[in-house]
Each structure stands twice: as C-alpha cells, then as structure tokens.
Fold this protein.
Amino acid sequence: MNTQDLGGKLLPILLSGARRNSGEELLKLGPDRAHSLLRALSLTGQSLRFKRPPVPAEFAVEHWPRDDRRIVPDRLRRPILRLLDRSTDDTARAVALTFEKQRLRPHPFDLPLLDGFVRRYADRLGATAEFWVQRETPAQQARGYFEADVLTAENWTESSIRPRVQFLKELRKQDPASARNLLIRSWSSENPDNRVHLLSTFQIGLSADDHQFLESIQKDRAPRVRAIVHRLLAALSGTAGDNAALNACMERIQPSKTGLLKKRAALKLELPANVKEHDTNRWIHEQFSTVTLEQLAHACEMSGRKLVDAAQKDDNLLFALALIASREKRFDVLDAITEELPDAWGRMSELNLEDDLQRDHDETTAWAAVMLKPRKWIPASPFPAWSWLHHQVEGPLPVGVMREILASKAWTEQLEPETKGGSELVQVICALCPPELRASIRAQLAPLETDRKDKGWMLLEILDELESVQ
Amino acid sequence: MAGEPRRRSAPSCAVDFVPVAAGQTRGAYRTGERMQGTLVFYPSARPLRALIKELNSPAQESDSEFTLGDGDLLTAYSEHEHALAAIPWLSVWPLAFRDARLRRNGKNFYLCSAANDELALPLMSSQADTTLPLLAVERFSGFGLWDGYACRLCLAQTPLGRWVAE
C-alpha cells in the first residue's frame, strides 16, 4: 500500500468511521482489528504530513510606490527605534521634521515597528510611508502617493497638502488669477481641511478679481472655510464695507483718557458677564476672527501701533490684537504687543488654532522672534505651551531666542537638583534647540538625573547625525 | 545557531551551556552575531540539538551575510521531507534557502520560490504585519522554521539589508 492508497482508500474509511465501508483494506494492516486500526491511523496521518500545502490560484500583484528619498543609514536605525519608544510627541515631531528636511525616509523594514510614528507623520516621511499608512484603505479611497521635487499645474493635486499649499502660495505671488482658477477647478473634490489651507493662500495677492469666487463659497458647509471667506471679503471691502463682527467688537471696546499731565487715549475690552475666566481666550478668538487690523484701527481712529499703546493696560484687548497681528503677519505690531504682553503665546496655546501652513520658514522665524520674550517672563510657562510652540514653529527656534530661553529663569529653575519632574520638558526644549546651541544645552543637562535627560540627549545626538547625512 | 558538526554548515538548536540572558534581552545572542566554538550534537537520524562544548571567541556583531547553503526553497523543503521520512515524529524543522520571495493572497502570506510558484508555504498569520515590507522585495535568501502547517520566517537577507523577526 502506498501513500496514494492511504489517502484515497483508507482516509475516507477512517473519516466515516467505517460505517459505510466494511474496511477490508484496513484490516489487512495488522494481525487483528485493533492493531489494524491503529496502524491505519498512524500511517494515514503520517502520509498527510507529506502532503504539500496547496498553492493559491492567484497572488496579489504588489504596487509599492517609487520613493526617491534616501533610506536612513543603518547605524541610525536602532537608535531611532530606541528614541521613539516611549518618547514624547515633540521628540517624534523633531525627528520627522529632520527626515523631511534631509529628504530621508525610514527603512521599510522598520515601518511595522514605527507604525504610530509613521501614521502621524507620513506626509513628512516620503511616498513609502504614505503607502504604508494607507495599505488597508480601500482602493477607491486611497490617495495616490506622489512626491515630486517640482509641482506643476498638471500634477499639483496629487501631492500631499503641505507641498500643495506652498505651490499655490508661490503661484499666488506670480499669477493670482491662475492660482485662483486652479483652486476653482479642484474645489469640489477637496476635503474641508484642504479647503481651509488652500483658501488661506488667497491672503497673498488678494484683489477684487477674487471677489466672485469668494462670494460663491460663502455658504460652504465647513464653518472654518466660511470664517476665512468672511475674513477675506472683509479685507477686500477694507474700511468701507460693513462688518457686523467689527461692529460687535467696537461695542465692547470702551475708550477713555489716561495720564496726568499729558492725556492719551486708552482702550479697554469689556467682556460679557457670562464669559467665564477660562473661556476668555476662546471668546476673544471667536469675536475677532473676522476682523482685520486695518478695520479695527480705522474704527478706533488711530494707527495699528497707536492701538497697541492705547491697549497697554488691558491684557484682553492686547491678546485680541496679538491674534490679529499674528494672523496678518504684522510682526512689527506683534513685537510691540509682546513687549506689554509677553505671555501672548501662552494664551494662544490654549486655543485650538489650525496648523498654519501659510507661514514659510522666514516668516515663522520672524514670528517666533517677536512672540517670545524670555527676558520678560515672570511666571514659568506651562509645559503645554512649549509643545504648542514646537508645533507652530516646526523646527528649532532662532538662535537668539533660544539663547535667551536657555539663560532664562523659567528654564534654569528646571535644572536645579531639587526640582523633580519627568523628561517631557527636556525633550521639547531639545527639540526646539538649534544646532548651534546643542553643545550649550548638553552642558546644562549634564548634572540632571539620567531618566530626565536621557531621551533629550538621545534626540540631540540623533538630530546631529541625521543632519550630517550627505 | 549555525555550526559545523561535520563537513558542511548546518542549523542547530543549542540546548545547553548557552550563556544565560541578563536584563531585558530575550536571549544571550542577537541575530547576526558570530563566534567560534565546538558543538556536540545529540545522536539522531537528523542531528539538530546540540550542546556547546567550548567557545573559542566571544560573540561579535557582524554585518556579513549568513551562509545559507545553495539550495532554493524547494530544495530546503525536500530536505524537510527526507527528515520527516527518517524521523516520523518530527515537529519543527529549519529551512535555509535562497531565491525566495513573499507573496500574498488576500490576508494570507506565502513563502514561495522567486523562480516559480511550485511551492507556497503559508506564513504564520502573526507575522503578517512585520513581514509586509518584504512583499516589495523581489528575491531574498533566508531562514525559517516549518512546523508542517505554517512557516515562521526568522531571517531574510535582501538587497535592502537584513530583516530579522522580532
């Protein structure tokens, strides 16, 4: 009896319990029935072990995208895995930003181990990472993975939102009409987040030619889009048009005179009685979201700079002005505001502000330089504001600002031996630290306990290594 | 662990006199480390279990490729069949092979020869996520453990470098 007989003849008998078949072939295997059965079972079972697994009728065809980015060097793979294991989001963001800047991507074999990191920062890690994140998405919902050095009018819709915003911004500077037409064509297929970011580029080169398109999308179903449309239309109408939001704000702003010898104008923002203290920032943000600096200054009959002087004694009005000036990139006015309200950035961090893709690197640097006045800090800034700041700046702070931070009491107090705490603050400060000052911060961190400084030190080393990759 | 009991390199399972692991490491040695020593194999129709008789050099990390023999996946599987014929109670058998690739049917992954689909060994479902990046590799040499139902891929040497199972 061979294996085919075992499989073809004996196996059915054994499976059916020999009820339908007398099993004569089975009984030949031993001196008696019991031995025959045992032998049949063992031989048949063993013969099945030689049966090769069936080959599926077809296999999937894999379509991994082409990814021109360099893979991170092998020597850095394990340190990066160790760093990102139980690190803060600030550390992960710093690593992702450096990957993007250096045009690097994680090693494909590390993608399963870095799943959370890759999911969060896929748009910064290259086409392979984006493919990895979408691998379980149905084909009709998956976005194409496309990363090109140069976007054009033909391929601009295929990339992720960040490069598209940059492309549209540049096009708005050169040819606002073409940029507008491109956006009109793709508008209906964009999701709300993309509409917000792309529409915000209309701040550049805004003109009466944009009016018709903006009017047509005034009733967009996304509230954030409607807010931007109202703001842009308000900017177009300038001081001439009627802005209901401005009127409402002016009802709340109380003018007066101050000074003994020389009277000067003073303004105060009166909050409604039902606005609680913890809601103040949110209320101010909502009230002033569609008001421009030009309109406010015109309504108060003074220049933007004079507005700041008049609001000197009122932190709430200063904060409102800071929001507007930050949004309109009026860094001169913002500089004056933060001289009086150095904690404006701390108050901003409590709001759920959108990722601002409109600021390029130079504008972000200028914004950070005027927002942060470490010399003027009195209380220690709360930890969450540092994280928010890193999120806004998307990279290290300017050297001058960081130098002041490292010398500030808010930071040096954290380095005292008796100060207890986790490693989160150290990690975010290391993430914000520019390369020129890494040696200084390493020296400052040296006396700290290992568990407080370990991740921060690792981050500095890995950033140094990544930035040196040729 | 690869040793040289006789004239050719062969996989072995070191069962005794292996240095005790300390701390959070899973074992005393990491994949890729090399050392020189002498193994003594338990007698068997297909010797696999071994004791470490002596170590002549400490374990050192090495990036050089493993020596995995010259056979493809079908050759490795045939060796398993010969071993099974000699040892009917055989459970897990090591497969060392060249020129293989990973393929997918639905959610199931299969280890196949790169040249053809004559043999398709199902991969353990628990490895689906970690082996997914290997789908992009056209051919690799590697090492796995076959238990008669599913293969546990332990190592793949690819143009992108070494993949090691966690």
